[in-house]
Amino acid sequence: MHPAPSVIFFTTFSGLGFGLLAWLGIGTPEVTGWTAFAFFAIAYLMAVGGLLASTFHLGRPERAIKAFTQWRSSWLSREAWCAVGALTLMGLYGAGLVFFETRFGLLGILGALLSLATVFTTSMIYTQLKTIPRWNMAITPFKFLSLSIAGGALLAGQVQAAIILLLIAGGIQAATWVMGDKALTGSGTTLGTATGLGQNGSVRAFEPPHTGTNYLLKEFVHVIGRKHAAKLRMISIILMVVLPIVLLLLPFSHFLAVLALASHVAGVLTARWLFFAQAEHVVGLYYGKR
Amino acid sequence: MTTLPQQTEKKLGLVIDLDTCVGCHACVISCKGWNTENYGAPLSDQNAYGADNNGTFLNRVHSYEVQPEAGAAQLIHFPKSCLHCEDAPCVTVCPTGASYKRVEDGIVLVNETDCIGCGLCAWACPYGARELDQAEGVMKKCTLCVDRIYNENLPEEDRQPACVRTCPAGARHFGDLGDPDSDVSQLVAERGGMDLMPEQGTKPVNKYLPPRPKDTLPDAGVEFDVLAPFLEPVADEPKGFLSWLDKTLEKL
Ligand code: SF4
Ligand code: SF4
Ligand code: SF4
Hints:
heterodimer; A: 290 residues; mainly alpha; Formate dehydrogenase/DMSO reductase fold; B: 252 residues; alpha+beta; Alpha-Beta Plaits; 3-stranded mixed β-sheet; two-stranded antiparallel sheet; 19% strand; binds iron/sulfur cluster
């Protein structure tokens, strides 16, 4: 799949933003007034910024409002509802904390649940696609959720929790790589089944239908950079999990905490790039590529 | 609505004969021509006369080499357009309701005034049957020429998809695959029509007829020349003027 920067930024930052909102919703850390304002501002910047970035890849962003209509069948539509619901409830909850120094507990819990539901619906947009076996795995939503909660803990300054959650998220991330590498083969889809010609012999793509490129090849058949995948995986896991944990274990300072966060974000961005760049869409088979 | 209908009254679709397709791409061109002038936005091209040209097509023809375990390889031309799947994943993923399957005939269409161009339906289609138009920003796909097949302004014989009408080899057939007595259903039954990527669970309506095995040559050693009988001399002895000419020239 083409690793479009808009989608990489969207999934990374909205994941972090909604993760932080979930922590704030359950009242960890317990903040009010201007401190609460700062926390909420960061969370909204990330969540809303991510959502806005995602509209950049639309062909017709001016009609985006129509995406609310098909929640019965479409995960993308459900994501839109969850995001708006979470941002509204958490906005009210945040206003209570900032302006009235009051914590509306139930509102916060509901907001936290909706924030996590947003991350879950995002992950389901990818998980549901049978066409991309590497994403079509039950573990995919766990990866998105665990990363969001761990990143949220980091942002919320929950050092103890962050260390444990980062380890869990890192483990799940590594597992998706191991499982994902076998996914396309495991799906049983080959050029033979794609053309139905497999029963007649071994099939080879002889001549493509067009000499130039097209939307399909640009969007779905991204093979550049895959050869560095192993190295990038190491780099991303070090930045995402190992380095932040080491920095958190050192005697606490705000500078180190910010460094840990920056490292984590860079690691997630790298992993997200790989998530797209390494994903093989079965349509590539028709072109003799994967 | 992007929930799929439980059942459709008809299952209109195409049957594509991989045995007869000669790979001329005429269907590609007629499809582009008809659909640029009719249903929805035109199928745009980008940088059509430059080095890095590309454009939107609803139908494309691949070519594959099939090497059997023994014997000569076969070259198969492989036209591919939307298969109007019964369990169309491209419909259910759509957030706006722009992508839908018609209850009356099972045709899968995009309502271009609702489409936000998110591309998710193209991600969900295993066959690469949808292309996002780069000029219009909306999703384009085969309409099964819905604006021809019911079009009473066209002469009767033209009320079929442009690609079917144009194919010089008769490799594309159009009809109701939900009716077991239709010509297309009969053809599928007779020739063992197959689904593409059945494991994806899309239940395509379009079927592909597998190529027949190649003719085999008679035993090695026996000279085989199909034209030889036609090249036998018709008359052994020239007669009339030719006979006189022959004899005269001989004497010189
Ligand atoms: S071929 Fe692709 S676009 Fe057509 S109905 Fe099936 S999944 Fe949808
Ligand atoms: S590109 Fe258009 S038709 Fe396809 S899923 Fe998005 S809104 Fe629906
Ligand atoms: S049925 Fe019409 S739109 Fe579909 S491939 Fe044929 S010519 Fe193109």
